[in-house]
Amino acid sequence: MAERFAECVTALESTLSTWRAAERLVEVDLAAGPGWPSRRGLVLGADAALDLGSPAVGSLAFLLWSAAESGTRRRAWRLGPDVSDLAAASREASLGLVIHVRGEPPRDSAEEYARYIDLRQALYSITPDGVTLRSMPSQQHLWLRIHRDAVARGFTLAHLGATLSDALLGLPFAREVDLLFVTAGPEALAPLRPLGRDVHRRVGALVKRHEEERAECAECEYQDICDEKEHPA
Question: What is the mean pLDDT of the chain?
């Protein structure tokens, strides 16, 4: 079975290489992130220091996965300011989040679908204290409302990254997690949008195959993806 996101991973690495060459990427030290408390709560607009990825300014968030050999590793980078600088400059900022999980290859499409559900649930179940997460996975939209007290206590993208990677690496099949945060403005998301659309279609094909009762392959908008998966060049 061909890897679903092989071409997407190549495109992502190419984009990261371009940004590294331009010295635009900053490595996020996830070792500085563990320890932020978890508590479910609702951050009201009046109490927020920052709306990161709000509908007014936009966001792009998507998840892809591939195989890994062994070991456990987590890495993160950001393109743009961290939370405190964003909050000091404006009440709202755009957000890009790309998550690449590597792990044991699935045995078949059914197992791949089950793992996608587990990854999605792990991602959207995080509850960092002082942060409300709102998501619309079907539109690749993620909105984080961050309380002013959380910003005052030093909440950073390292804390968010550590929380995310802990949740994802808690799954038995996950071995490595790479995170990319893009906070440099809506225009910085443009190079990622074609990749996001490609990932969205590939996930859509997987979900449709396992959630629809009848398969109308001849009329399906994802037929090219299924052909590519089952009959790789």
Answer: 90
